[in-house]
Amino acid sequence: MKLKITPIGNSFGVILPKELLAKLNVAGGDAVYITETPDGFSVSPYDPDFEKDMERAKGIIKKRRNMLRELAKR
Question: Fewer Cβ within 10 Å of end Cβ, the chain: N or C?
Fold first, then answer.
C-alpha cells in the first residue's frame, strides 16, 4: 500500500485509509506503534513495552499468588 506524506501544521503525517484502519482494528484516537525490523518498519496497534511489563507482572502474580488471594478477600 502506498501512502503519501502530507503536511499537517508545522509537522507531517500519513493518512491511513479506512481499509488499513479496519485491518489494524484501530480507530481515530487510538495509538499505533512503529517498530524497526530487519526488513524496514512495522506499524501495529501492539505495544512491545506493554508486553514486557505484562510478562514481569505475570511473574510477580505467580510468585505472590497467596498474598494476592488474601488481599482480594479484604
Answer: C
Q: What grid cell was written down for 10?
A: 508545522
Q: DSSP alpha helices (H): ranges in the chain?
A: 18-24, 48-63, 65-73
44-69 pLDDT per residue, tens: 888 878 878 888 888 888 898 888 88
Q: Which three cell numbers stand for residue 63?
A: 510468585
Please give the model's pTM, rounded to 2 decimal places. 0.58
Task: Phi first, then psi: give them for residue 30, nearest 5 degrees.
Answer: -75, 160
Alpha-carbon distance of 30 to 21, in angstroms, equals 10
Domain ranges of the chain: 5-73
Q: With 0-12 CB in 10 A as exposed, 13-18 as middle and 19+ as buried, what is 32?
A: middle
End-to-end CA, the chain? 54
